[in-house]
Amino acid sequence: MVNTQSKELATTEEDAEKQLARKKLKRSMQVTMYHMAINVGINTLCVTTRPNVLLEMLKGDAQRTGQMLSTWAGGIGAVEYLLNPTVGRLSDAYGRKPFLLLGPLANLLLKGNMALNPSINNLMLERIVSGALTTMSGSTTCMAVLSDLVSGKGLAMEGAGLGSYAGLGCILGPFVGGQLLARTGNWRLPFALGSFLAGLQILMILTCFEETICKKMAFDWSTVNPFSFVRFVSRPACRRMPSPTCNTSIPQYWVY
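RE: above sequence
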């Protein structure tokens, strides 16, 4: 009788622990969605402000302004090109939370620095470093988190939800930033607001996000290769697929 009661009590406690773990993981998924929306919102908050700031700093030289903005956009692409293939494996080894924090930390420091100490160099750092790290801590790491929690059709559905949150941030960011600039004429405010929101984002991740990796994998730095994406778009990679899709224009590796 005593043994039976002990087993029932142990089972109840085990069920309670599993239920608590599920709640924590569900909360992590919700935090990931909010993180994605805030990330994109902060990243686009200053999209209408930067051209005006740079034009003012260059004393109305529109040609140089356009050249510098396009060069910086290319710089973001170069940084993402070099780092994105490695971020997923690094987060497998060291956990998702540190990489979720990368973008907000960059926004907190660099947008705050731009609001307090405006200069062309600080604006360049804010645009390139913050933009690249925000993308890596956003879409790249968020999809890794979702793949930890769901699979199959569930992953496709949650991925669509993640895209919806990103779209929400993409709508609200430029709107709020543009309204701040139009109503106050102070271009420092969008940068200051971005830095403040990034601080709140860091607090949310630190207090509410539960690590989604049960067992971290060892990372081998010798396998780091920024050109690894080439194998996904090459003809041999397509031939290795189980289904005969080599004649399609879009490789199936691109489809989630």
